Amino acid sequence: MRINVIKLMSPLHGEERVLKSIEPTMEFLQKNYEVKFVEPGEAEGFTLIWVMTGGVEGKFREIYEKLEKPVVLLSEGINNSLAASMEILSYVKSRGDSGYLLYASCEETAKKINELARLEEARIRIKNAAIGSIGGPSDWLIDSAVNFKKASKRWGTRFIDIPMEELCRYIEDQGEEKYDGYFDGAAVLEPTPDDIKGAHRIYVALRKLVSERGLDAVTVKCFDLLGKLKNTGCTALARLNDEGVVAGCEGDLPATFTMFAVRALTGQNSFMANPSAVDFSENTVVFAHCTIPTCMVRKYRLRSHFESGLGVAIAGEVQEGPATVFKIGGEGLDRFRLYRGTLVKNTESEQRCRTQIEVRLEVPVREFLENPLGNHQVIVSGDYSMLFDAFMKYMNLT
User: Fold this and answer.
1) Has residue 307 got a pLDDT over 80?
2) pLDDT band per the 50, 70, 90 thresholds, residue 12
3) Domain coordinates of the chain in residue numbers?
4) Each residue's pLDDT tens digit, 21-48
5) Which terminus of the chain has fewer CB atoms gathered within 10 Å of its CB, N or C?
């Protein structure tokens, strides 16, 4: 793994003497990593500020604005390095930024570097991403609008507003591309062959729009398609997620952004869903939606869209086991909720969206109900609660 290192050293200590005294740290770094020594602002990627001596606080202040945040300091137990590091860390935190001080055994330091480098890799993926919002949020998502400027300032992500008419043109302009049988392994209940072909046309158009716009993720105000096409985007969104393009429903940008963050951190797909029912005695929540990445399920059926009875939706079964419920939200995507749980069973109510999972939370479900962050939640198989919490702290959100 490659890491960038910025050296801070006071000339008062004498460069030759300092370099001799910190040889063990240099050997440790070069043994475990591909080290690139850089100047502030030169390189993107995980960067250590190596505080080799004391007396460098003023120099740090001079370069501070050029540094990516959070700031990671590597301190020594000699040369007044630790004292300087603590002054620097205090300076960082007093300005509302997050920072880390690495001062431990080589084994513990290597473990922390690896953890932070993983978080930094995810931060950069999110920073460099372009996320499209087609049609804006659905009318009922009254607390899920995102201020693109605020969110982009915090995360670096480019948020792109795309009119629904643009997607409709892609659908209308495509030729007679045949359905390729992607979902042929599933049992089919309500949808007709024409419904499946129509859903495929939506997928082809959306895939082309995503490619030509250079999007890494997209959310679609998909209920608008019901009136225009008598069909849904459920299978299109599922397939895009299968193919590595994060795709969310109902124009919900916070949920889609959360799904992208989950993928950047874990490499896993996630399930965007409504909290649909609560069982207080079992401390469970049922989450349901009409689409899910098929790579997340052990089997699935093609059904009609729940609310409208139109088009093609996915009724999937997810493997029972540990699960994490996560949501980043707020106008500037600067708040989050995080719950550890266990997927205990899949349910099949005709009064809910087609894919339904019941998750037992490790906190009282009353707490979940009383502290909402919008409607949709994002559920990923596996316990990633510590990773997600560490990442949000890394991003200076608690």
Assistant:
1) yes
2) confident
3) 2-127, 130-394
4) 999 999 999 999 999 999 998 878 999 9
5) C
Q: Residue 191, preceding bond cis, omega within 30 degrees?
A: no
Mean pLDDT across the chain, nearest whole number? 96
Q: Which CATH architecture group holds 2-127?
A: 3-Layer(aba) Sandwich (3.40)
**Mean local confidence (pLDDT), 253-262:** 98
Say how far residue 272 (Cα) sits from the centre of its chain: 12
Assign 3-class secondary structure to the chain: CEEEEEEECCHHHCHHHHHHHCHHHHHHHHHHCEEEECCCCCCCCCEEEEECCCCCHHHHHHHHHHCCCCEEEEECCCCCHHHHHHHHHHHHHHCCCCEEEECCCHHHHHHHHHHHHHHHHHHHHHHCCEEEEECCCCCCCCCCCCCHHHHHHHHCCEEEEECHHHHHHHHHHCCCCCCCCCCCCCEECCCCHHHHHHHHHHHHHHHHHHHHHCCCEEEECCHHHHHHHCCCCHHHHHHHHHCCCEEECCCCHHHHHHHHHHHHHHCCCCEEEEEEEEECCCCEEEEEECCCCHHHEEEEEEECCCCCCCCCEEEEEECCEEEEEEEEECCCCCEEEEEEEEEEEECCCCCCCCEEEEEEECCCHHHHHHCCCCCCEEEEECCCHHHHHHHHHHCCCC
Residue 332 has pLDDT above 90, yes or no: yes
Alpha-carbon gap, residue 282 to 289, rounded angstroms:
22
Q: State pTM to two decimals.
A: 0.95
Closest by CA to 46, choosing from 108, 101, 120, is: 120
